[in-house]
Amino acid sequence: MKVLTANRLTDGIAVWYADGGWAETIGNADLAHDKAAEDRLEAIGAAAYANNEVVDVNLIDVTVVDGVVEAVRLREKIRAAGPTIRGDLGKQAHPETIRA
Amino acid sequence: MYRYDEFDQDFVQARVAEFSDQVQRRLAGEITEDQFRPLRLMNGVYLQLHAYMLRIAVPYGTLNSQQLRMLGHIARKYDKGYGHFTTRQNIQFNWPALSDIPAILADLASVEMHAIQTSGNCIRNVTADHFAGAAADEVADPRPYAEILRQWSSVHPEFSFLPRKFKIAVTGAERDRAAIQTHDIGLHLKKNAAGELGFAVYVGGGQGRTPMVAKKIRDFLPEADLLSYCTAILRVYNLYGRRDNKYKARIKILVHETGVEEITRQIEAEWQELKDAELKLPEADIRAIDAYFAPPRLTARPEGDAAVKLARLDSKSFSEWLDQNVVTHRHPDYAAVTISLKGIGEVPGDASDSQMEAVADIAEKYAFDELRVSHEQNLILPHVARADLKAVYDALVDIGLATANSNLISDIISCPGLDYCALATARSIPVAQEISQRFASLERQREIGELKLKISGCINACGHHHVGHIGILGVEKKGAELYQVTLGGSADENTSVGEIIGRGFSSEEITDAIEQIVETYLGLRLDPSERFIDAYRRVGPAPFKEALYAGETKAA
């Protein structure tokens, strides 16, 4: 299972593709369950990159826990939450946003 | 310290205007990321895990109060209230928006700072001994030469597209505090028998995935020949350095593959063509740059001895700080102070906006407005009257920066690691924090004595693990963090690359392993004056391997 992630051009903030736009949290990211869905996400990422909305576009592995999307690799978990040493920074600093 | 002349200021302003225009065009979609990436890198802007990162140059680690105050202002206004001082004597901000970077660069330019050549395959910020100009043991201040190199290397047309990045370090003392033998060019400022200034020249040091100790290719280079000789080195490198494989593109690989004798011959031959031409430094020009670095007027403050003696009696913690973080100055009434950015359990090298401002105030009041960033990720007040040490200490206590651990096991160099860095394979800061907490007792740290522990979160070795007395390298193995330990590295005048001691340790095991290594050392040292590195060099890895792995062998 994969989702599409990138960093927003204007401020570099990590974003995930969800519901036709780029969300600041991973929780509700659009899931690709098969190759066709991955190709569709990749095409969306390529278009957004070409359109100068985002940079560093990647498909990453995820799982779904209690209905919430979670990254598999530690690197992507940290991108999705924030520095593990500073709970006051990054997405984890606003848990209400993540839940939403 | 050096002040911009009209040319410098115009050059930096012009670059701010140019890059601001490039950022605007990028944001407007007029240039692509592929076009923009090399431009942003030339101006110190990286893209990391969470956001952009801006690396700001602190030439040879020298700052004044106004500049540090501006860094605090940038941290507060454009970032998240803190900055990270690096092993290149620079500072990085972890969260700037691309759209704010033109304003940040304009603010920096207003205090004679910039981010030019803090990235890219060019000559990077020239580093120097952080006690330069203050150290009792130095022959001369190395910073005027670092400044001459800065001027020469800034947007140098021939050396702006090298095979790979290029780092130069200069020290002015026999005791090397600038790690010159781990640099592409290391310069050791010294005097010859006639009392003339010049350099021992080292080439081809570096860390990364292929660590190499630099080779001395010249015992004495007259100071007037500094630029012609460096040009000869860079020219040989630029011509023959590999461009087919970025992992083999540093000059250390060229030196290794060519052989020291042959590369020295090539450099000397190139130099013969250059040495008597326009790159020869006129004596008057060297002395003019020297004048910028004239030490402050250090008036006699003989009351310092009595004041320090009295304050020692009054405060054990002040006394410990004095022993650990204060070193002898060339003037007997003064001292150089290390402000540890390694509070127990803190992030090595991080300072908050208010700490930066408070340290700037202290420097202004007690240290002739001068500060340094050390490659060990601490701040330095190079000139403090001994009579003012207690006042400085009290002011540092107030802002939580009086940890008395300089050169002890908790004075850890650590790269940002996977908590921030897009290249990292494992976290390094949490490992540093846990080790720092395990050895929190100052009494225990002082019993252990000098111990340089350095941690990198990937093979690129920004945390200098290869040259730590104890080095830790974090890698990713089967999806988990694994920490490999090296022992016996050092980055001083007897530079050595540490040896891998055995299998790596999980994040749960690594602190125990470090403690085991330290206990083994304590058990085998001849006496407390035998430092960890000396003991390791005497006994080799065997006792440490035995302590770490013997149980496993028997079990197997």
UniProtKB/TrEMBL annotation, chain A:
Alphabetized InterPro entries for the sequence: DUF2849 (IPR021270)
Organism, as annotated: Mesorhizobium amorphae CCNWGS0123
One Pfam family of this chain: DUF2849
Listed name of the protein: DUF2849 domain-containing protein
From TrEMBL, chain B:
MF (Gene Ontology): 4 iron, 4 sulfur cluster binding; heme binding; metal ion binding; oxidoreductase activity
Domain Nitrite/Sulfite reductase ferredoxin-like per the UniProt entry, residue ranges: 52-110, 335-396
Sequence ranges assigned to domain Nitrite/sulphite reductase 4Fe-4S in this UniProt record: 119-273, 410-548
Statement: the UniProt record of this protein carries the keyword DNA-binding: no
Keywords: 4Fe-4S, Heme, Iron, Iron-sulfur, Metal-binding, Oxidoreductase
Gene3D superfamilies attached to this UniProt entry: Sulfite Reductase Hemoprotein, domain 1, Sulfite Reductase Hemoprotein,Domain 2
PANTHER family: BLR3264 PROTEIN, FERREDOXIN--NITRITE REDUCTASE, CHLOROPLASTIC
Protein name in the entry: Sulfite reductase hemoprotein subunit
Source organism per UniProt: Mesorhizobium amorphae CCNWGS0123
